[in-house]
Amino acid sequence: MDLGIAGKWALVCGASKGLGLGCARALVREGVNVAIVARGAEALQAAEAALRAEAAWAGSGQKVVAVAADIATDAGRAAAFAAPGGPGRDFDIVVTNAGGPPPGDFRSWERDAWLRAIDANMLTPIELIRATVDGMAARGFGRIVNITSSAVKAPIDILGLSNGARSGLTGFVAGVARSGLAARGVTLNNLLPGRFDTDRLTGTLEATAKKAGRSVQDIRAAQQRQIPAGRFGTPDEFGAICAFLCSAHAAYITGQNLLADGGAYPGTF
After folding, report:
1. pLDDT tens profile 50-64
2. 35 touches 80 (CB < 8 A)
3. How far apart are CA 113 and CA 46, in angstroms?
C-alpha cells in the first residue's frame, strides 16, 4: 500500500535506537524525509548511516538529517528546527518520543523528580505540537504521533511518574485533536507500546532477573507467556503502525490511543 506521504518531512524524536528508530525507518521506506533527534551522538550517527542506506535502497532520494540534542530542552528544540537541510518548523509529521522516567515508590519522589518526568513526557510533546501544528493546518496536512506507554491504559504501580506525566499528555491531546484541526487535515494520536524487544526492555529484564535470582532467559520466557502473541514486539512492527497513522489513509483517525501490546491488555475497552 502506498501511504501517500512520500516527499513529506518528519521529525522523529528519540530515534537513535529502539522504537523511535523503528518509526524513522518505516517513514524512510515510504519516501519521507526525516530529521532524527537523540542525545547520544554516537548511536545517532549509526542510526543516520543506517537510514541513509535505507533511503538509497528505496531510491527516492529523500533526505536524512541527524541532530544530536536533548529535545526536552529549549536549546534542543531550537537545534532540531534549525538543522541544516531540514524544513525549519515546517514539519508535516512529528513523532514525539522520550525515555520513560525511572520506576520506584511514589513516597520517595520529591518535587524535582515529578517536574523532570512532566517536562520530558508531557510538556516537551506539547511544545513540539505548539511549534508545528498551525503550520500543518495552514498547509492542509499534518500528523502528530506521540509514543506514550501501555501504562496509560493499564497503570503500573511502580511507574507512577510515567503514569502521571503521560496521562496528562493523553488528556491534552484528546482536547486539542478535537479543536478543529482534523477538518484542516491535521490529526493527533497516541501510540501506546507494550513490551517490545529494545535495549530498554533488555535492561529491565536483567534488573528483574537479578532481583529474582533467576536467569534472564527464564524471565524473558515467563513474560512472553503472559502475552497472547507469545512474544515481544519488534521495533519494525511498531514503526509500521506509526507510519500508517502518519499516512494519507489515516485522516479519519484522530484523538485516539492505539494500544500495541500483542493482546496483553485484558480489558474490553
Report:
1. 999 988 877 777 899
2. yes
3. 31
